[in-house]
Amino acid sequence: MTDPRSTAPTVLVVMGVSGSGKSTVAALLAERLGWIFADGDDFHTPDSIARMRDGHPLDDAARRPWLARIRAWIDARLAAGENAVVACSALKRAYRQALTGVSPRVRIVFLEGSRAVIQDRVRARHGHFMPASLLDSQFAALEPPGPEEDPITVGIEESPDAIVAAVVARLGIPADDICG
Ligand SMILES: Nc1ncnc2c1ncn2[C@@H]1O[C@H](COP(=O)(O)OP(=O)(O)OP(=O)(O)O)[C@@H](O)[C@H]1O
Ligand SMILES: O=C(O)[C@H](O)[C@@H](O)[C@H](O)[C@H](O)CO
């Protein structure tokens, strides 16, 4: 397992279905750690966003170049010696392998929640391209990370602050190294 106190950089991939809180939690986590943040939503092409907005899920072929762009971003952070957090659904095991390159420096954070809770949150959310109607396809595609992926799995019922605190505790980062 990665020792976050070592000098080698770490990248956290915050994953889960649409509406599980990836953007919210990953941004707050990055702020708390003082690490660089990126949102996987910003790596989509306009075509992919239009497709999802129109209620059609992306397939493996559409996701492949998107994941490759995020992987390039992760590799650049590691090469520059920068710690970072990226929000990305990374629903399937193969997607996560494409992202991590099975590097021990890249850790998976899985936001685990029930369909009922997530549906309520997505329905209450406004101004986002992802419609609630795509939730079934997100859960159908989801392959929760197994123990061999050494994920940090956290439930989503509590506040974003509490979720971030739980992730930080699991990382074992000393309190002195945490912002705010
Ligand atoms: N722990 C939480 N408690 C209550 N509400 C939350 C929590 N986390 C996120 N939310 C809210 O739930 C909604 C979905 O969160 P968010 O947009 O971060 O999810 P996401 O996984 O990034 O979604 P998508 O993949 O569709 O971009 C937002 O309105 C957000 O404010
Ligand atoms: O993997 C996918 O099906 C999609 O790319 C989505 O998950 C979006 O990236 C986003 O998370 C929704 O807003």
TrEMBL record:
It holds the Pfam family AAA_33. CDD domains: GntK. Pathway: Carbohydrate acid metabolism. Gene3D superfamilies: P-loop containing nucleotide triphosphate hydrolases (3.40.50.300). One of its GO terms (molecular function) is gluconokinase activity. It comes from the Bacteria. Its EC number is 2.7.1.12. InterPro entries: P-loop_NTPase (IPR027417), Therm_gnt_kin (IPR006001). Keywords: ATP-binding, Kinase, Nucleotide-binding, Transferase. SUPFAM superfamilies: P-loop containing nucleoside triphosphate hydrolases. Belongs to the gluconokinase GntK/GntV family. PANTHER family: GLUCONOKINASE-RELATED (PTHR43442:SF3). This is Gluconokinase. It comes from Methylorubrum podarium.
